[in-house]
């Protein structure tokens, strides 16, 4: 098991290099550079200041050379400094924002699992029942609904018209004066809308996947065999079928990470939450290359890590993987 | 069989409906979508303006009708691009196996680990948002699923006797790939293309929402919602109707895709 994990960790390195190389080229080959952008924002900027900026960030060097310099710094976990006027180190900028995004996505993911497994299992076991029909309709709508639109409408209805829920930020103005318990309560209170909508959007996909995985499992020979041995329906379904049906779900969870991270741009901009998605959007608009690259690296690293955890859990759950060939 | 498949029938009806709206937009729209009328701003829905008017007094119904053109064309063309790339890579990978397959599948793995939406955002913002850039960028970031699926299908078809026969007969690889294998993987490709249109429409609308889609004054469903967002306190209709259209269009493509899957793949029938 340990060799497997170590091997997988080493496999991540070429993947990360591939991802960063492509990102770096794409980001840097775009027409126009941050210096031009800066001077277009402020036409009074002098020629010398313009050159100084170019020299400071070595923007005149070829892309691959700059990538190499960037990669060498990255290997020391140095992401460089932001182009923005604060010139803060990229890593500390991201570190401020990352916990918020991870918190929201983790909570969403846990809720998605808790809610969609029973829905998927029940609609597989009671196929064509009223419950199955209703959830199928909801699933189709959940699949099709543009989440940012739902977010705007819910913010308007629950936040503005009803005034039940806060619609912006993750904390109240008086947050600093709150006791610890009040702080926790305040954050949860602010998370209800963003998390709720993100969960609604994803439940559709997950519960559908679980349903079809469960239906496959129910049709397997070992299920017939289990019934033949006289086991009760509950034992067969929850002990035999469910365990096998949940295996592929682990992989799907790992694969859904890029989508969740990408979705955070939308949620964080609708609800003005100071997370990584919002930072990325601001950096893109300001052409803050170091921050953009930093977030792309962190984002792909999280994805790779998620996939690794998924594969390890898979290996733990399924002995065939542990002892047999990989995948 | 097609007639009995409710999913397919309802889905394809929605697609046909929106396609007709897109094609005949100038006839269907009662007003010019960019005609500003400052005497009638933010009017609620009425018989005169079915979906109300926006902050510049433009008719939201006409704008939504014209927006259909943007959403559908982005959906179709970006999927065309992604299916083209995915099919070629999948065919080559599945047929030649070995090192070619290894390298191509590594590329797929890398592409799957990209925070795609971030990359799309960055590229569009740098290249200046235009409908062509959006189609291309969505297309080249969403081919991986098709590639994997085509590869798996190609691998199993390559084992069949008629492919061996074609090889023995001395046919060129190109002919075997495109004339003998491709037609046999066409139906799963069609299914994933249909589902792909749905997700492209969603991505385009999200980009428009962030101000990186098709630029105003050209109406797109996403950018109408965005302008509605700023006025939601006084004019819910601005955001509401284009959102419903996105929902319906995506639903239509998803239903059609699912229906097609049932029709084309007898295995999925019980």
Protein model, in words:
The complex is a heterodimer of chains A (327) and B (270). By secondary structure, chain A is mainly α. Chain A has a domain at 90-287: MetI-like (MetI-like fold, Orthogonal Bundle), CATH 1.10.3720.10. Chain A has 14 helices and no strands. In chain A, helix 12 runs antiparallel to helix 13. Chain B has 270 residues and is mostly helical. Chain B has a single domain, classed as MetI-like fold (Orthogonal Bundle). Helices cover 73% and strands 0% of the residues of chain B. Chain B has helices at residues 6-23, 25-28, 60-96, 98-113, 116-127, 131-140, 144-158, 161-168, 173-209, 221-230, 236-264. In chain B, helix 3 packs antiparallel against helix 9 and helix 7 (144-158) packs antiparallel against helix 9. Chain B is elongated, with a radius of gyration of 22 Å. Chain A binds chain B through residues 15, 18-19, 22-23, 26-27, 30-32, 140-141, 143-146, 148-150, 152-153, 156, 160, 255, 258-259, 261-263, 265-266, 269, 280-281, 284-285, 287, 292, 295-296, 299-300, 303-304, 307, and chain B through 106-107, 109-110, 112-119, 121-123, 125-127, 198, 202, 205-206, 209-210, 222, 225, 228-229, 232-233, 236, 239-240, 242-243, 246-248, 250-251, 254-255.
List keywords for this structure.
heterodimer, A: 327 residues, mainly alpha, MetI-like fold, 14 helices, 78% helix, B: 270 residues, 73% helix, transport (chain A), MetI-like_sf (chain A)
Helices and strands in order, then pairings?
The complex is a heterodimer of chains A (327) and B (270).
Chain A: H1 2-29, H2 34-41, H3 47-56, H4 63-75, H5 90-125, H6 130-144, H7 147-161, H8 180-218, H9 221-228, H10 233-255, H11 257-270, H12 276-286, H13 289-317, H14 319-323
Helix pairs in contact in A: 1-13, 2-3, 5-6, 5-8, 5-13, 6-8, 7-8, 8-10, 9-10, 10-13, 11-12, 12-13
Chain B: H1 6-23, H2 25-28, H3 60-96, H4 98-113, H5 116-127, H6 131-140, H7 144-158, H8 161-168, H9 173-209, H10 221-230, H11 236-264
Helix pairs in contact in B: 1-3, 1-11, 3-4, 3-6, 3-7, 3-9, 3-11, 5-6, 7-9, 9-10, 9-11, 10-11
